[in-house]
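Training component of the fellowship. As part of building independent skills, the fellow (R.M.) carried out the full modelling exercise for a liganded target. The chosen ligand was zinc ion. The inputs are recorded below so that the supervisory panel can assess the work.
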Amino acid sequence: MKFDRVLGYSVATILVLASASCAVRKPAASQPAHTTHWSYSGATGPAHWGSLSPEYALCSTGRSQSPIDIVSSNPRDLSNIAFSYQPAPLNIVNNGHTVQVNYAPGSFIQIDGDRFDLAQFHFHSPSEHLVGGAQAAAEMHLVHKSPDGRLAVVGVMLVEGDHNPALDSIWSNIPAAGKTATPPSVTVSAAALLPKDQRTFRYDGSLTTPPGTEGVKWNLMVAPVTLSSSQLAQFRRHYHGNNRPVQNLNGRMILQDSTP
Ligand SMILES: [Zn+2]
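Fellow's submitted model of the complex:
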């Protein structure tokens, strides 16, 4: 399978997963392979993803999988990610794996001159990445796609602390599993969810959900943002434990931006 074919497939899969819930899907026998049910525990949990479907094989055979434990990194003076995010009407889906905000076209980032458009962001709790073995309360993934089909994810750790007002419009509109909500006159700001210090860890990884597609440019913010204990509890009423365990680094180099 060619590289661009893999990435094209992965984006399609993200969008399929975004609009469908395992809970409301047909039985496995009647499903196309790319919607094979998976979960975060038991017989369809992360240890088994690679064998659930041939389409998911990279989850076990891949050499550049995510998430990882960022144990050490190499300082570099990297050019900062340029964020061009606009507020957007809230479109929120509870897809059976996470709470995901589908973002209206027009918001994008530039990494070393390449444009990647923001497609959606979603949450894992606890965090998927570790930093020096430490896990955060939650992690947000902002998923971007370039015009030629490459993926770049910006990860932001969420730690317990001050109330985060940027989460309010999201947290108060989480629909039931399998449902999408588009409440009128409610907007969301991805920009408001970013930390002020925008230094990143960067490495080459994968989707952290099946099919585990590789070639994803990972940019994990060094600085976290906060959410209150009640905001964390509110999210965990929907999802607690939707985190894939860390994967082998396999010699990959992690860069850390050393300058603000
Ligand atoms: Zn994610």
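The panel noted the following from the submitted structure. The first strand starts at residue 69 and ends at 70. Residues 141 and 155 are 5 Å apart (CA to CA).
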